[in-house]
Specification:
This protein is mainly alpha-helical. The chain is 90% helix and 0% strand.
């Protein structure tokens, strides 16, 4: 039953309106609560996914850093061996020069 806008509202109309507002408020409160639950679940899922992803990245970085450190250690060893070989070669040059001079003199 609809009333015309120029008619005054009765107590019954006001009570019906109050009842309708309470029902809407309860449904809205439930929807908000449900949304918060879903949002919290979504946040937790994302937090877990990010934690797993972070772990995977850290593992990959750790592996790369391990390889990098191994390469650096190899380079240090090779430089040291190269220096030793250069010193030995220089020593051989000196001995060869001495032998050549001894042969020339004799």
């Amino acid at each position: 039953m609809t009333k015309k806008l120029d008619q005054a509202a009765t107590k019954k109309d006001v009570k019906k309106l109050e009842s309708d507002i309470k029902q809407l408020d309860m449904r809205l409160s439930k929807n908000i609560f449900d949304f918060k639950l879903e949002f919290d679940e979504y946040k937790e899922e994302n937090r877990q996914m990010l934690t797993e992803f972070k772990g995977e990245i850290l593992e990959a970085v750790s592996e790369v850093m391990g390889q990098f450190n191994a390469m650096r250690e190899e380079r240090i060893i090779l430089v040291d061996r190269s220096n030793e070989n250069r010193k030995r070669l220089d020593g051989h040059e000196v001995r060869i020069d001495q032998l050549e001079q001894a042969v020339v003199v004799a």
